[in-house]
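Re: flavin mononucleotide structure - here you go.
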Amino acid sequence: MEFYDVVKARRSIRQFTGETIPEETLKRIVEAGYYAPANDHFRDWHYIVITDKKIMKQAVSGVPQNLTERDVDDMTFISDPIQKKSYQIAVPLQYKMLTEASALLIPLMKKKTDLLHPSCLSDLNCYASIWCSIENVWLAATSEGYGCNVRIPLGNEEEIAREALGFPDSFMIPCFIGIGRPREDAAKVKQLDVNTEEQIHWNHF
Ligand SMILES: Cc1cc2nc3c(=O)[nH]c(=O)nc-3n(C[C@H](O)[C@H](O)[C@H](O)COP(=O)(O)O)c2cc1C
């Protein structure tokens, strides 16, 4: 696919056919992550690529499994009906979108600063950098005809994954990634309109 077609085709995919992704394709997709920019030049990210269903389920066993559309009503930060609809689609699928994916990807970043108590914006650079890597993976998956979703680990979800996967305390999970072939009827969430004419400024705000 042409670059701008890939960028425009990338969506969050939370429902998959279950088709297996060949190992060499998964490797190519994850390796794309290592071409992302990195604040400190190290690119010392790790990815755990999990295709074994039992391990996938263990790794995300901390993700709530029984959420419904109604749970979205308690999310006080939601301020727009389109945004609300997107959460009503996504929230009930959080566990399934990871365990019914063909593979679960776990990016790992080294804890170099106190990310939850940063003293300046640069303290967050390692987090920003791994998200560049994650976006590369997401775009690579799209260009190969696959789709991805992401979930930020909440509460003890990271600790449960650490226990299941055995990665050291010095690493953090920025997000879980489910990847697979999009189901034909996979829900694509309506997006809020962005007026680039208003939001892209030339020379002055
Ligand atoms: C930093 C970040 C965190 C996100 N967290 C979640 C999440 O926890 N669960 C989820 O289903 N989607 C999550 N998403 C996906 C967004 O909901 C999604 O990108 C947004 O609705 C736009 O839809 P699109 O990806 O189809 O363009 C996250 C995306 C980003 C960039």
